[in-house]
Amino acid sequence: APRGTLIHDYDVDERGIVTRANLIVATQHNILSVNQTIALSAERYLAQNDEALLNGVEFGIRCYDPCLSCATHRLGDMKLDVVVRRGGVEVRRAIRR
């Protein structure tokens, strides 16, 4: 899936054999935006029922990286755990699909 910039960084030895490979994929470039979108979705749907919250978070993930959610799964079928915390510690709500 075309998701953004892909950076390849290789080291090779004198025979042309790859000795180190570093790939920077679109997910790494987009992770801040993904996290912010998921947080906004969670805030928007927090007062809704569990399914609405799960769907909102899933939609945020799919906007940036459909491979994370796997295109073989229909919307609403993605395995997903959502844990809502207060202050980053206290668990307020935990949902599993």
Structure description:
The protein has 97 residues and is an alpha+beta fold. Helices cover 40% and strands 27% of the residues. The chain contains three helices and four strands. It has helices spanning 26-45, 50-64, 66-69, and strands at 7-12, 18-24, 81-86, 90-96. It has a two-stranded antiparallel sheet with strand order 1-2. Strands 3-4 form a two-stranded antiparallel ribbon. Strand 1 (7-12) and strand 2 (18-24) form a beta hairpin. 9% of the residues are buried. The model has no long low-confidence stretch (mean pLDDT 85).
Radius of gyration: 18 Å
Strand count, sense and barrel status of the largest sheet are: 2 strands, antiparallel
- End-to-end span in angstroms? 25 Å
Q: How many helices in DSSP terms? A: 3
Order of helices and strands: EEHHHEE
User: What's the total number of strands?
Assistant: 4
Tell the overall outline: elongated
Binned strand content: 25-35%
Arrangement of strands in the largest sheet: 1-2
Low-confidence sequence ranges: none
Structural class: alpha+beta
Provide the residue-averaged pLDDT.
Answer: 85
| Estimated helix fraction | 40-55%
Total of domains? 1
Short description:
This protein has 3 helices and 4 strands; from the N terminus they run ββαααββ.
Strand and helix map with partners:
Layout: E1 7-12, E2 18-24, H1 26-45, H2 50-64, H3 66-69, E3 81-86, E4 90-96
Antiparallel strand pairs: 1-2, 3-4
Task: Name the features.
4 strands; 3 helices; elongated; two-stranded antiparallel ribbon; two-stranded antiparallel sheet; alpha+beta; 97 residues
